[in-house]
Amino acid sequence: MGALEQLIVTLREGVEAALIIAIALAYLAKIGRSDLNRVVYAALAAAVGVSVAGAIVLSAVGGNTDRYEGWLMLIAAVFVFTMVWWMRRTARFLKRDIETRLSRLQNGGAVGLFLFIFFMVLREGVETVLMLTAITLDTAALWAWLGGIVGLLLAAGFAVAFVRG
After folding, report:
1. Contact 129/51 with Cβ under 8 angstroms?
2. Which residues of the chain have a pLDDT value below 50?
3. Which pLDDT score, from 0 to 100, does residue 63 have?
4. Contacts of 128 (CB under 8 A, 6+ apart)
5. 3-class SS at 109?
6. In terms of C-beta density within 10 A (0-12 exposed, 13-18 middle, 19 or more buried), how is residue 23 classed?
7. Distance of CA 50 to the CA centre of its chain
8. Which residues have C-beta within 8 Å of that of residue 116, sequence separation ≥ 6?
């Protein structure tokens, strides 16, 4: 697989994370709590850092075997299946559900907000790491990185558009 597959995976997962961040930031602005934006960004950075660390560990532990690739694909499929199942139940009310949880966490302070955003974004990061690790076992490293970086940059562009729009 080449850079296109990497781009698609990182773009899809990055846009999902961007939606979470955009909804959180828009809600905090709506309730006049923009002072908590730094907590959202800190949770985002922490989730990305843990995802990168996970990628490093997976690449160090794994080998270029079909068995390893197969297990990673199965685990990634479980993550995607549970996300599709959850989205099927909540997609129509996703924004409202996230805002409801944020309103409950607002009184709990920054720690609750941090943990909520961290785990929501970490899930996307783990899915990305699992899928990229599984599909890059036989891909030229330069193309894999290029596709992944372009996908993340496009997702970041969407994130900025979501927050502003």
Report:
1. yes
2. 1
3. 59
4. 9, 10, 13, 14, 51
5. coil
6. buried
7. 11
8. 43, 101, 102, 105
